[in-house]
Amino acid sequence: MTDSPTATATAPVHDDATTGSRIGATLRLHTVAWPLLIAWPVGILAGSFLISYVIFSLVQSDQDDNFTGSVFAVYGFVLAFYLQAMTQTFPFALGLSVTRREFFTATALMALAQSVVFALALYLLSVVEAATDGWGVRMRMFGLARYFTDSPVLQFLALFANLLLVAAIALAAGAVYQRWKVTGVLTAGVTVLGGLSLAAVLVTWARAWPSIGAWFQEVNRAVPMVVLPLALAVLAIGVAWCALRRATP
Prior knowledge:
Blueprint: H1 16-30, H2 34-58, E1 66-67, H3 72-95, H4 100-131, H5 134-138, E2 139-140, H6 152-205, H7 209-218, H8 222-244
Parallel strand pairs: 1-2
């Protein structure tokens, strides 16, 4: 009697190195749009700075700080980059057999890295701005967080948290569009605006605005400047993944 052959079942091996390399390759997809990722934000920021500098150099002002909100152009480009990443790069990546998880992980890592780099650059510019008395014309463009705190760490974290929040909102909006198209974006927008409007009505009805204002004054500055934006960013990233995991371009 001969022994019968036995089938040996082999479990699939999860290769972390392969997964990491695929995520790295997906990260490189985003660098194709490097003008929108880096060049345009830097160029627009430099142009806005020069225009503001010339204006405040020509106009004499008795104010201690001449505020300009030109730095918010950076936030606009961060928003635009991650919207196009979800609406344009995502379908292209799927065509290259990139999984949704790999694409989302790579994009989230890109958002984290970009937020750190931009926050560091803006913070260093704010340090130079403070040291030169607002570039010699008492202009405040980069040191917005200095209105609320003197802590360098808190200033940097506030910049990082808010940049990440903008990126997360763009990821969520783009993922909702991929899943439910324009109807989904409009529904989400109306829902958010409706919720905020209802909350404002309830607070007004309860005459709670003074209490809310007092809370912001008394609470640790890290809560509204860092903790709340990060919490909202995590929520938006969660929404983005829930929508993207079943999205079909």
